[in-house]
Design a protein that fits this description.
Elements lengths: L3 E5 L7 E7 L2 E13 L3 E8 L3 E8 L5 E8 L1
Antiparallel strand pairs: 1-2, 2-3, 3-4, 4-5, 5-6
């Protein structure tokens, strides 16, 4: 599922997500829990302001974001 993400850009673009939009609702990232790298992707496990954990995936080639998963803790 595609998501719209506003990210922090420090030494590179989209260094980490700050907030994201799913189904016309914006969520603030409260905590960046983990980050890992695949061959062409960067994954971010974040806790949003609704308390749910989301896995956001950034395609490093196209700079497009998608939702890779979510779970309630």
């Amino acid at each position: 599922m595609e998501v719209q993400v506003e990210g922090y850009s420090g030494y590179k673009a989209n260094e980490r997500p700050l907030r994201f939009c799913l189904r016309d609702r914006w969520f603030e990232v409260r905590e960046l829990q983990d980050r890992w790298y695949g061959p062409d992707y960067t994954y971010f496990r974040v806790r949003a302001d609704d308390g749910i954990i989301y896995i956001l995936r950034l395609d490093e080639t196209t700079q497009e974001w998608s939702l890779a998963g979510s779970r309630v803790e």
